[in-house]
Amino acid sequence: MRIDVVSIFPEYLAALELSLIGRARQDGLLDVRVHDLREFTFDRHRTVDDTPYGGGAGMVMKPEPWALALESIADDAAASGVADRPTLLVPTPSGEVFRQATAAQLAEQQHLVIACGRYEGIDERVFDWASERFDVRLVSLGDYVLNGGEVAALAMVEAVGRLLPGVVGNPHSLVEESHSDGLLEYPVYTKPAQWRGHEVPPILLSGDHGRIASWRREQQLERTRARRPDLLSD
Ligand code: 6GU
Predict the structure, then answer these.
(1) Is residue 219's pLDDT more than 90?
(2) What's the alpha-carbon Rg for the chain, to the nearest Å?
(3) Which of 8, 140, 143, 158 to mutate to test the pocket of ligand 1 (most atoms within 8 A of CB)?
(4) Atom 2 in ligand 1: which residue has the minimum CA distance?
(5) Ligand 1 center to residue 105 CA distance, Å?
(6) Is 178-231 in the same CATH topology as 2-169?
(7) What is the DSSP string of 104-136?
(8) Which site in 24, 71, 86, 194 is 20 to 30 Å from 107, CA atoms measured?
(9) Fold of 178-231
(10) Is the pLDDT of residue 59 over 80?
(11) Whether 123 contacts 148, CB under 8 Å
(12) Residues lining ligand 1, judged by CB closer than 6 Å?
């Protein structure tokens, strides 16, 4: 899979060189390219923002640098033989919520482009224009506000990247984790069995795999009821 990320803070994305995703890139499983939006400006101050039409607080990202950046990425991908229509992901608190199912859908794509906005957002016309060449999806991490799309881009690349074949060493760990079956994960324990006056639930030491499996399922349901009842009702 190829993922291009466009940002005015490309250094923010340096974390994608670490850990599982960094390894996947080294192994050639994931081709991540980070671009500086300011490379697509031509004035002395490399301006990417301007005041909003209609008034109001803050600044809006100008459309032309985005068009030039996205065009150059789409042209390059087409020239390097990426056949599929790319998906343009736009992290924004006004998007649809990014869920495990979203990550799973995106993991099927050949090419993702993530447009990290700052300030009050990107001129809306960029999304209309881009829909000719991209499947455009505005996506939010949840109901709170971040200062820009970079932290969300990190989350999305990690959530999608770990679903690609070969990225997670033991693919079984993808099956038994929170949200993979619509429930929260069961609690886990390791040695020692007694620790600072707290003990491991004895059933886990019983060796009875059938009873352990049903205990874990009960724990999943109980936690989901307590912490995320919304997952059970919809
Ligand atoms: Cl995706 N972007 C921003 N800027 N804020 C957010 C978010 C995304 N998701 C939650 N808050």
Answers:
(1) yes
(2) 22
(3) 140
(4) 92
(5) 20
(6) no
(7) HHHTT-SEEEEE---TT-B-THHHHHHTTTSEE
(8) 71
(9) Trp Operon Repressor; Chain A (1.10.1270)
(10) yes
(11) no
(12) 91-93, 139-142, 144-146, 148-149, 152
What pLDDT does 119 receive? 78
Residue 73 phi, psi dihedral angles, 5° rounding: -70, -45
- CB 141 within 8 Å of CB 91: yes
Distances (CA, A) of 120 to 36, 53, 124, 198, 210: 19, 12, 11, 49, 53
Tell me the C-alpha to C-alpha distance, in Å, between residue 142 and each of 94, 217, 232: 9, 27, 18
CATH code for residues 2-169: 3.40.1280.10
What ranges do the domains of the chain cover?
Answer: 2-169, 178-231
Mean confidence (pLDDT) of the chain: 96
**Residue 20, annotated as binding a ligand:** no
Measure 140 CA to ligand 1 centroid, in angstroms: 5
List C-alpha distances in Å: 132 to 7, 89, 111, 125, 203.
Answer: 22, 14, 16, 12, 57
| More confidently predicted of 114 and 234 | 114
